[in-house]
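Notes from the 1:1 (GR / supervisor)

We went over the backlog. Supervisor wanted to see one worked example end to end before approving the batch request, so GR pasted a single chain during the call. The sequence is below; no edits were made to it. Supervisor asked that the structure be written out right there so they could see what the output format looks like.
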Amino acid sequence: MSTPQVVDDAIRRGEFSEASELVEQWLAAHPLDPKANTYGASLHLRQGRPERALEAACLAARLVPDSAEVHYYMGCAHQALGALGEAVACHREATMLEPTRAEFWVALAAALRAVSDTDGATVALRHALKYCPGQAPV
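Structure output shown during the call:
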């Protein structure tokens, strides 16, 4: 089983410490692997470490600038750190790069709502519903 599969399996089981340890080992061997840095960003966010998540996501973004997922994690990290304008910009970029991912639109809506742009948030939620019919985002 490949490293990403092993990490995914640990995440599915809710074993985030194990997944983080696996990603740290992966990064020690391949520090410039964009996928490893993306996993790192995700896990740092899950574990309440937005500063580290932002570092990992920014490195991944330099390696794969057209990755919507990387921009999504950068946006989540910025929002957790209170950098709301940056969060909006990153989430917008994620939706432009991959417009059919409902979770990216929901994240953009949350960021827009945080900056008091309720009209923009409403539009973003409508987009999310297009790609996730029958499931109204909260």
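Supervisor's comment: The mean pLDDT is 92.
Batch request approved.
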